[in-house]
Amino acid sequence: GIQVEQSPPDLILQEGANSTLRCNFSDSVNNLQWFHQNPWGQLINLFYIPSGTKQNGRLSATTVATERYSLLYISSSQTTDSGVYFCAVAHNQGGKLIFGQGTELSVKP
Amino acid sequence: KAGVTQTPRYLIKTRGQQVTLSCSPISGHRSVSWYQQTPGQGLQFLFEYFSETQRNKGNFPGRFSGRQFSNSRSEMNVSTLELGDSALYLCASSLVGSSYNEQFFGPGTRLTVL
Predict the structure, then answer these.
(1) Are residues A64 and A55 in contact, defined by beta-carbon separation less than 8 angstroms?
(2) Which end of chain B is more exposed for a tag (fewer CB within 10 A), N or C?
(3) Distance of CA A70 to the CA centre of its chain
(4) pLDDT in tens, B47-94
(5) CB pair distance less than 8 Å for A35 and B105
């Protein structure tokens, strides 16, 4: 089955710093989503981005489907950005998302 | 529009018991998927229901089952609970019928098996 790898596994930043999280996947996909898991466990949708580039405030994401990777950029990080970021993909229609192992981000004041 | 809701939010059971978790999707969404999250295995797909039919299934034993009702609400059941079933169970819903299939997650049910 499709494999999803995220890097780095852990990241510690000072408030105000920028960061780039990477997601590599092993097969073509028709769904790629980035999530932020809050301290209570809920997955918050950041981007639905099977291809192309999107921006939402301080966050942006780019997926290069032909090269099978996606990047999540966080600029001017804040302590509230702390948590685990997941990339998830699906390579057919339907609801089976395959998740990466996540990147745990810690932003220090 | 209200988001995905899950009940109960927390549950404590003992080994051997069974449990039923409920999920109500976003209004208009007809697909409901279930995932299990554990520290060791991460987030794993359990199954997906669409129009009251199971459309996809993950690699879990038959003790894990689910169903979907005509109003798209879904339940999952775990029988003969084991300690290893302790996990956060997440439900997600999505629109079906187009190439756009973004999934939206509920807050989860945290199950502890003693």
Answers:
(1) no
(2) N
(3) 8
(4) 999 999 998 899 999 999 999 999 999 999 999 999 999 999 999 999
(5) yes
pLDDT 10s digits, A58-99:
999 999 999 999 999 999 999 999 999 999 999 876 678 999
Specify which residues B91 forms β-bridges with: B34
Closest CA to B92 of B40, B38, B30, B42: B30
Q: Chain B contact for A93, CB < 8 A?
A: yes
Element (DSSP H or E) covering residue B93: strand B87-94
Q: Which of A66, A59, A50 is nearest to A18 (CA)?
A: A59
User: Two tokens at A28?
Assistant: 């073509």
Give residue A91's pLDDT.
80
Residue in this structure with the two tokens 């996909």, named with its chain if needed? A29
Amino acid identity of residue A67, one-letter, is E
Res. B98: pLDDT tops 60: no
Quick one: which of B33, B51, B50, B40 has its CA closest to B89? Answer: B33
Q: How many CA atoms lie within 13 A of A70 on its CB side?
A: 34
Length of chain A equals: 109
Q: State whether A94 and B43 contact (CB < 8 Å).
A: no
Interchain CB contact of A24 with B (< 8 Å): no
